[in-house]
Amino acid sequence: MSNSPVYNIISVPVEKVVPNTYNPNSVAPPEMKLLYDSIKEDGYTMPIVCYYVKSKDVYVIVDGFHRYRIMLEYPDIYEREGGMLPVSVIDKPLDHRMASTIRHNRARGNHDVDLMSNILGELHELGRSDEWVSQHLGMDMDEILRLKQLTGLKALFREVDFGKAWEPGDTELSKEFFVEYEKEDEEK
Questions:
Q1: Contact 40, 73 (CB under 8 A)
Q2: Alpha carbons 132 and 138: distance in angstroms, whole number
Q3: C-alpha to C-alpha distance for 50 and 9, rounded to whole angstroms
Q4: 18: how many CB neighbours lie within 10 A of its CB?
Q5: How many Å from the N-terminal Cα to the C-terminal Cα in the chain?
Q6: Sign, Cα dihedral of 29, 30, 31, 37
Q7: Residue-level pLDDT at 103
Q8: Total-model pTM
Q9: Do the strands 84-89 and 17-18 form a parallel or antiparallel pair, or are they unpaired?
C-alpha cells in the first residue's frame, strides 16, 4: 500500500475546516455554478487537502477551497453530506504547504498573479531562495523575477547581485561626462 495521503481520507465536520491565507486562485461565478452542479450530481469525488492543527483542532485547507465553499453556500449539499467533508491530510511545514497549494493550482492552470507575488514574498520572508521557489513551485527564474517586480518590495531582491554602471564616489567621471554633455548641448 502507498503512503500517499489519498489512501487515508477522513470525514471531517465542515466547521472544523478553515481556509488558508495564501490561496492564489479564484473561480468565476459560472465555474462555481458548474462546480456546484458537479458536486450535486456526482458527490465529492476529490477530497479537500488539509493540514491538521492539533492545538486548535482545525484542518487548514491546502487545496480544495472552492469545494469547501460549495458545502458552506449550498444547504442542499450540506444536508446531503451531513456537514462532513472528505479530507486528505498532509503534514508539512508552512512553506511546503504553500508550495503544495501553488502546485495544485498551477497544475489546473489557474492562479492569481498578485496573490502569487504575495506568496513569493512570504516564502522569501521564510528564508526560501529563488532556486528553492523554482524547484518546488515549477517556475523558471524569469517568472520569479517578474513576480518579484510586481510586489515592488526591495527585500525580495536581497540575493540579486546587480552590476554597477558607476560608483557614487566617482565624481571625476561624472564631471567629465557632464562637461562633454554641456558642450554638445551648447553647440546645438
A1: no
A2: 10
A3: 11
A4: 15
A5: 82
A6: positive
A7: 61
A8: 0.55
A9: unpaired
Question: Which residues, 6 or more positions from 67, have their beta carbon under 8 angstroms from its beta carbon?
Answer: 35, 39, 44, 46, 48, 85
What phi and psi values does residue 119 have, to the nearest 5 degrees? -65, -40
What does the pLDDT read at residue 84? Answer: 98
H helices of the chain, in order, are: 29-42, 65-73, 75-81, 94-108, 113-125, 130-137, 141-151, 171-187
Q: List all residues 6 or more positions away from 4 whose beta carbon is below 8 Å from its beta carbon.
A: none
For the record, the C-alpha cell of 87 comes out as: 479530507
Identify residue 168 by its one-letter amino acid code.
P
C-alpha cell at 158: 536581497
Separation in Å, CA 114 to CA 23, 55, 71, 84, 151 = 11, 32, 27, 32, 8
The arithmetic mean of pLDDT across residues 50-65, rounded, is 90
What is the grid cell recorded at 76? Answer: 442542499
Q: How long is the chain?
A: 188
Q: Which residues pair with 86 in a beta bridge?
A: 11
